[in-house]
Each structure stands twice: as C-alpha cells, then as structure tokens.
C-alpha cells in the first residue's frame, strides 16, 4: 500500500533533466508513454483526425468486447444445455445402476440358494455313498472273519480228527467236510 501512495506522491516531483535511466514508477511511465504515443499519432496522422482515430480504435475495441461477450453467452448457453443433458444421463445411469444393483442382489441371493441346495444334495449323496461303502465293507469284513473262523475251526477239527481217527474214518470225514465247504461256498456266492 505504501508503494501506491508513494507513486501518487511522486507524480508531483519529476526527476532532474540531467539523469537518464530506468524508471520503475508505473504511473509516471504510463503518462510519458501515452504522451509519446499521442505525439507520434498526431505527427504521422496530420491528415487524419486524432479524435476520429481514437474513436475508431475505441469502436473496434467495443465491437470486439461485445463479440466476446456474445460468444461467451453462446458458450455459456451451450454449456448449460450440455450440463442439463449430462445431469439427465446421470439420473438415467443412476436409475439403471440401482436396477442392476437390485437385480444383482436378487440374482446373488438366488445363486446362493441354488448353491446351498446343490451342496446339500451333494452332501446327501456323499453321505448315502459313504453309508453304502461302510455297509459293503462291514459285510465284506464279516464274511472274511467268518471264513477265517470257519477255516480255524476246520483246521482245529481236522487236527483233532487226525489225532483220534484212523485212516478210513479220516478219509470219510475229509470228504464230508469238503462237501460242506462246497455247499457253503455256493451259499456265499
């Protein structure tokens, strides 16, 4: 603020004519420049009215300003129109996004239920297969145990018979046991 005040104060004081240099005072240099420009215009434009030239310059400047204002108003109108179109598109896109969101959530819930049901059915099938496998393995194990018990009993009986029986009785017992094994084998198959 002090510089502006100093500039106005220094208008009344002109530097001495003996010094030449760069004057940084804007207001005093503008006055000097304006007087030089007007002097040149008057000197070279003797046949042209200085006020007419200045009036033409001002009219041209006024027309350019008016054209700029008109162009700015047209651009502003176009921008407002584009803004309204963009807002309408935004509202439309927001509605579509909401619809997609709602549809997406319902689709996700539907897929979730389908997946749960499918998984439940798969688990039921696996449980059924597991139970069948367990039953099969139990039956097979029971059959193996029966066969081993029967073989051990048979070997024990044969051992007892061998020690107690003579050869003829021994051969008849073996034949009877082979017959029983054959009939048991047919039953198990």
TrEMBL record:
<protein>
    <recommendedName>
        <fullName>ATP synthase subunit b, chloroplastic</fullName>
    </recommendedName>
</protein>
<dbReference type="GO" id="GO:0046933">
    <property type="term" value="F:proton-transporting ATP synthase activity, rotational mechanism"/>
</dbReference>
<dbReference type="Pfam" id="PF00430">
    <property type="entry name" value="ATP-synt_B"/>
</dbReference>
<keyword id="KW-0175">Coiled coil</keyword>
<feature type="transmembrane region" description="Helical">
    <location>
        <begin position="31"/>
        <end position="54"/>
    </location>
</feature>
<comment type="similarity">
    <text>Belongs to the ATPase B chain family.</text>
</comment>
<keyword id="KW-0472">Membrane</keyword>
<dbReference type="GO" id="GO:0045259">
    <property type="term" value="C:proton-transporting ATP synthase complex"/>
</dbReference>
<keyword id="KW-0813">Transport</keyword>
<dbReference type="InterPro" id="IPR002146">
    <property type="entry name" value="ATP_synth_b/b'su_bac/chlpt"/>
</dbReference>
<feature type="coiled-coil region">
    <location>
        <begin position="76"/>
        <end position="103"/>
    </location>
</feature>
<comment type="function">
    <text>F(1)F(0) ATP synthase produces ATP from ADP in the presence of a proton or sodium gradient. F-type ATPases consist of two structural domains, F(1) containing the extramembraneous catalytic core and F(0) containing the membrane proton channel, linked together by a central stalk and a peripheral stalk. During catalysis, ATP synthesis in the catalytic domain of F(1) is coupled via a rotary mechanism of the central stalk subunits to proton translocation.</text>
</comment>
<keyword id="KW-0066">ATP synthesis</keyword>
<comment type="function">
    <text>Component of the F(0) channel, it forms part of the peripheral stalk, linking F(1) to F(0).</text>
</comment>
<keyword id="KW-0793">Thylakoid</keyword>
<keyword id="KW-0150">Chloroplast</keyword>
<keyword id="KW-0812">Transmembrane</keyword>
<keyword id="KW-1133">Transmembrane helix</keyword>
<keyword id="KW-0138">CF(0)</keyword>
<comment type="subunit">
    <text>F-type ATPases have 2 components, F(1) - the catalytic core - and F(0) - the membrane proton channel. F(1) has five subunits: alpha(3), beta(3), gamma(1), delta(1), epsilon(1). F(0) has four main subunits: a(1), b(1), b'(1) and c(10-14). The alpha and beta chains form an alternating ring which encloses part of the gamma chain. F(1) is attached to F(0) by a central stalk formed by the gamma and epsilon chains, while a peripheral stalk is formed by the delta, b and b' chains.</text>
</comment>
<dbReference type="GO" id="GO:0009535">
    <property type="term" value="C:chloroplast thylakoid membrane"/>
</dbReference>
<keyword id="KW-0375">Hydrogen ion transport</keyword>
<keyword id="KW-0934">Plastid</keyword>
<keyword id="KW-0406">Ion transport</keyword>
């Amino acid at each position: 603020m002090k510089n502006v005040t100093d500039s106005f104060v220094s208008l009344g004081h002109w530097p001495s004519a003996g010094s030449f240099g760069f004057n940084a005072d804007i207001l005093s240099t503008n006055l000097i420049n304006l007087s030089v420009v007007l002097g040149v215009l008057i000197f070279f434009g003797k046949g042209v009215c200085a006020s007419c030239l200045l009036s033409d310059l001002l009219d041209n400047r006024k027309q350019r300003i008016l054209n700029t204002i008109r162009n700015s108003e047209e651009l502003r109108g176009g921008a407002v129109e584009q803004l309204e179109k963009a807002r309408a598109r935004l509202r439309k896109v927001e509605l579509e996004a909401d619809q997609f969101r709602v549809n997406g959530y319902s689709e996700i819930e539907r897929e979730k239920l389908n997946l749960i049901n499918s998984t439940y059915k798969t688990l039921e099938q696996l449980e059924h297969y597991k139970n069948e496998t367990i039953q099969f393995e139990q039956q097979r194990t029971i059959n193996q145990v029966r066969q081993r018990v029967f073989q051990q009993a048979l070997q024990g009986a044969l051992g007892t018979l061998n020690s107690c029986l003579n050869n003829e009785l021994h051969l008849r017992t073996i034949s009877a046991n082979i017959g029983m094994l054959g009939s048991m084998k047919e039953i198990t198959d």
